[in-house]
Amino acid sequence: MEVELIIKSTWIVPVVPRATVLRDYAIIIHEKKILRILPQQEALDQYSARHIVQLDEHVLIPGLINSHCHASMALLRGAADDLPLHEWLQNRIWPLEQEFISRKFVVDGAELAIAEMIASGTTCFADMYFFPDEVAKTAISANMRVQLASPILDFPSVWAANADEYILKATQTHDQYRNSDLVSTAFGPHSLYTVSDDPLRKIRILADELDIPIHVHIHETKTEIQDSIKSFGISPLMRLKNLGLLTPRLVSVHCTHLMDHDIELLSAQGANVVHCPNSNMKLASGICNVSKLVHHGVNVALGTDGAASNNRLDMFGEMRAATLLAKVSTEDATSLPAYVALEMATIQGAKALGLEEKIGSLEPGKFADVVAVSLNDFNTLPINDPISHLVYGANSSQVSNVWIGGKSVMRHGDLLTLEKTKIINSALSWQEKIEKSESLA
Ligand SMILES: [Zn+2]
Which of 132, 146, 178, 287 could form a Cys-Cys staple with 139, CB 3.0–4.6 A? Predict the structure, then answer.
């Protein structure tokens, strides 16, 4: 049988089945999807291909899924560092956004972010930001997979005047991309301190109707919980429960402050958590108790958050931070082994975004979102354990080749769907504007 592509690699870590390492296997790819994964000799006996790629001393993994990002904020990287969350957000980020956000800002920022993400092995990201329609166009043009969590706030912005308009625009964005391979959608109520009960009730009804996730920042700081108890008499998580939003549709981002009963609640209701370890550490927000969540069967995914609070969009860094933070915070070295960190960055991300039938593992029938990582480098030799190296040893710069839906988007380190020089020049021109900003004075 003739197929489009065969990728042969020394190692393949398909993620499903758990902790499996295949040696000298090949992936057969046809019409955007994975057809089979089988020993190289059998592959060559049974299939001929238009393209055959041979990668020695490489490991193939499913494309990494960044389950929480604000891609366009890449342009604000380094513009507000070393501040606590509320000061960072209210005194720096919001004024900067007020000054600069436009369609062009969103497109240029998203391009920069997507380039950084593809180059570091991410093939799908969940994005919460203004002008999601522009993020979608930018992603499609780069052949990048994205889930748009259309932003919803009570107050006006460049994107909408009030909660109803944000919600309307979210449903329009959904309609526009309902048949897209690359773009899926979600509702993105920013947080429980920026969205009131009425819009949250509407979001719940519409999310059920459209069968899409609800993506929200929650329990990110102690202050957020104390303020909620002052204003509503209950925690933000309880408010979500009372409003009927605590369901398997919920993508709860951060959860750095959870009591035992919160963890039991998340588990009982089947809600998902997105852990953003580097952003949480940098803003000193707290530590998400991932070990306990996992122990209670909660699906935990990983995200970078925006580059204004990370400052990288590098899922290798998140995997490493997640496992190290889990170990030191529980004083238990067996906590969150490497293969679990890799699951959080792949299949569990896909589950959180409701995309587990399509992506998240290297399995026949799924989209061929495949990343090749070279292990032939000082820091990953000898190759005693490829999964350990992916989490503890490798740098994201060891990502060599990336395919999304079977299409090659990076070959031997060169981006194929994005223009590197153009992206760098546009970032530099934004740098000049941001340097002169009154918001930073
Ligand atoms: Zn965020």
Answer: 146
Q: Where are the beta strands (DSSP E) in 32-134?
A: 33-39, 48-62, 64-69, 122-127
CA of 350 to the centre of ligand 1 (A): 18
Instruction: Output the CA–CA distances (angstroms, integers) from residue 265 to 201, 247, 250, 255, 294, in the order listed.
Output: 19, 10, 12, 13, 13
Helices (H), 233-363: 236-242, 260-269, 277-282, 290-295, 315-330, 338-344, 347-352
**Cα angle value 415/134/93 (rounded, 5°):** 95
Spacing, Cα 161 to ligand 1 middle (Å) = 21
159 C-alpha to ligand 1 centroid (Å): 17
Model confidence over 229-250: pLDDT tens digits? 999 999 999 999 999 999 999 9
Q: Which DSSP string corresponds to 382-425? A: S-S-HHHIIIII--GGGEEEEEETTEEEEETTEESSS-HHHHHH
- DSSP letters, 65-92, are EEEEE-GGGGGGTTSS-S--HHHIIIII
Q: Which helix (H) or strand (E) holds 98?
A: helix 94-100
Ligand 1 center from residue 288 Cα (angstroms):
14
Ligand 1 center–CA 67 separation, angstroms: 10
Q: Please give the domain boundaries of the chain with CATH numbers for all domains.
A: 2-61+365-405 (2.30.40.10), 64-352 (3.20.20.140)
Enter the pTM of the model.
Answer: 0.98
Cβ neighbours of residue 120 under 8 Å, at least 6 residues apart? 64, 312, 313, 314, 315, 316, 396, 397, 399
Question: Distance, CA 308 to ligand 1 centroid (Å)?
Answer: 10
Ion ligand 1, residues whose Cβ is below 5 A away: 305
How many Cβ atoms from other residues are within 10 Å of residue 155's Cβ? 12
Say yes or no to pLDDT of 441 above 80.
no
Mean pLDDT of 199-209: 98
pLDDT greater than 90 at residue 437: no
Distance 255 CA to ligand 1 centre (A): 12
